[in-house]
Design brief:
The strands form two sheets. Strands 2, 3, 4, 5, 6 and 9 form a six-stranded antiparallel sheet that branches. A five-stranded antiparallel sheet has the order 1-11-10-7-8. It is globular. The protein has seven helices and eleven strands. The protein is an alpha+beta fold. Helix content is 33%, strand content 27%.
Length: 254
């Protein structure tokens, strides 16, 4: 398995500081995007803890097959899926513990979307509304389901594009890391084909740039993923740049 990888983050045009974080850990084929929240500097703290804990757990378990895991494995899942699930649950616990121990950080949280590429597949773990997409032969498909109030609403009611755009609580998420001692994590497995690109991003990109435009920019940037990642950030800023913008691109070569 050979991978091409790039990632970038940008404060955007409206925010004074960047609460996003991303992780490129090629030695373990692990890639993450986290979008922090909580006001002041606490969102930055939460997103940083999330990616650092994922990296530490994957490094530890990658070096030592006998390493003790902090949570029991789900017997219905494969080992690589349990590894992703456990890493995300551990990140949640660390963020919650840190917030409870420092009143300045209470209420902080973060989204997290991660991809562990292994065995010809991408194992995706996610909490919140940061997304994983699969680009394949010119078509972009969203792999994750947003844990948001808007998405919950859409499950029960049909809304026009105009109603979606004007939805009053569009940015409210219903699940995040750090808000409670435990968290429900969505984990999925996506088989990969040669040339596929996995895109991880926060809503600063997905909420500003239509999927069709994202697909076009990825296609144009296949020879230079670093430039492609920057073009995605530029497109979000050109659309208004109302939030921090972070994306990671991973291309699979069979």
């Amino acid at each position: 398995m050979r991978l091409s990888v790039a990632g970038t983050t940008d404060v955007g045009l409206k925010r004074s500081h960047n609460e996003d974080a991303f992780l490129l850990l090629p030695e373990e084929h692990l890639y993450c995007v986290a979008d922090g929240m909580g006001g002041h500097a606490s969102g930055e703290v939460a997103s940083r803890i999330a990616v650092e804990e994922m990296a530490e757990f994957f490094r530890l378990t990658g070096r030592d097959d006998e390493a003790t895991w902090p949570f029991a494995e789900d017997p219905a899942r494969r080992p690589d899926e349990n590894r992703v699930l456990t890493g995300v649950r551990l990140a949640n616990a660390r963020i919650h513990e840190r917030a409870q121990g420092d009143e300045r950080l209470q209420g902080m949280g973060t989204t997290l979307v991660c991809a562990h590429l292994t065995g010809g597949a991408a194992v995706i773990g996610h909490v919140g509304d940061s997304r994983a997409y699969l680009w394949r032969q010119g078509t972009l498909r969203q792999l994750t389901e947003d844990h948001s109030l808007l998405n919950d609403y859409l499950k029960t009611k049909k809304l026009t594009p105009e109603e979606v755009e004007s939805f009053p609580h569009k940015n409210v998420i219903v699940r995040a890391l750090g808000m409670k001692p435990t968290v429900e994590v969505d984990v999925l497995r996506e088989p990969l084909q040669d040339g596929d690109v996995v895109l991880l991003c926060c809503d600063g990109l997905s909420g500003m740039v239509p999927d069709a435009r994202i697909a076009e920019l990825v296609r144009h940037g296949l020879g230079d993923l670093k430039a492609a990642a920057q073009s995605l950030v530029d497109a979000a800023n050109e659309a208004g740049g109302v939030d921090n913008i972070t994306c990671v691109l991973v291309q699979y070569h069979a």
